[in-house]
From TrEMBL:
Domain of life: Bacteria
CDD domains named among the record's database cross-references: WHTH_GntR
Lineage: Bacteria, Bacillati, Bacillota, Bacilli, Lactobacillales
Stated name of the protein: GntR family transcriptional regulator
Pfam families cross-referenced by the UniProt entry: GntR, UTRA
């Protein structure tokens, strides 16, 4: 339950419902009909994502990670029940939605059988009417038997949470500078060989089972990355 509450808190922060600080624990207990211990565990999850700062005796304040006019991708927010990597109100243009079989490259890289059936989703995603990224993602049908067209056009992660009760428990993320292939350049109407930031992700649900993997190329101008690191060692 505390993971669901943490996700709702993150969404509320992203939507601007809490502009300065979180409500008190008592107010959150009433809001979510949860115990103090559950609320504290949920707040701790959100804190671990770098979205809050704790002020002794005053409460939890919202961390302003926006850097001037830049769009910030919070790569720390990857372990909540849903994936919170992208802004919540992206619009999608679906280019491909079909099923394919895993190839030898996927099998070697992700440890899945070569005949594993996958949903393949290729989308152009837009932020404020401007191209944000090209995303090519694959979802294991052994984990996700059905993926609706409505979800592909909006939020796949919300669908997975509501339909199957699953989300990202942990992930492996690899950032690189990648040159656009001819196909990628054509899809985005950009110059072949141009260099952009790329993110390759493998997302896992409970018990470290592979849920999906993806390749995303970010082309939005003035994009910034945010990482939050917590030192658990005693000083």
């Amino acid at each position: 339950m505390y993971r669901d509450i943490a996700t709702k808190l993150v969404n509320a922060i992203q939507d601007g419902q809490f502009e300065t600080k979180l409500p008190t624990e008592a107010q959150l207990m009433e809001r979510f009909h949860a115990s103090r211990n559950t609320i504290r565990k949920a707040i701790d999850l959100v804190y671990q994502q770098g979205l809050l700062r704790r002020v002794q005796g005053s409460g939890y304040y919202i961390t302003n990670i926006q850097l001037r006019h830049k769009t910030v991708v919070n790569l720390s927010a990857r372990s909540l029940y849903n994936s919170n990597l992208h802004p919540r109100d992206l619009e999608s243009q679906v280019l491909t939605f079909d099923t394919v079989k895993s190839n030898t490259t996927f099998s070697r890289q992700y440890g899945i059988p070569t005949d594993e059936e996958l949903y393949r989703v290729t989308r152009l995603r837009y932020w404020h009417d401007q191209l944000y990224c090209l995303e090519k993602a694959y979802y294991l049908r052994s984990v996700v038997p059905y993926l609706s067209p409505e979800a592909v056009n909006s939020s796949i992660w919300d669908f997975l949470s509501e339909a199957y009760g699953i989300g990202v428990a942990n992930s492996d993320d690899y950032l690189s500078l990648a040159r656009l292939t001819k196909e990628e350049a054509l899809l985005m109407d950009l110059e072949e060989g141009a260099t952009y930031m790329a993110l390759d992700s493998a997302n896992y649900y409970k018990n470290n089972g592979l849920l999906n993997f993806s390749h995303t190329i970010f082309v939005y101008p003035d994009l910034a990355l945010y990482f939050h690191t917590t030192n658990l060692a005693n000083n």
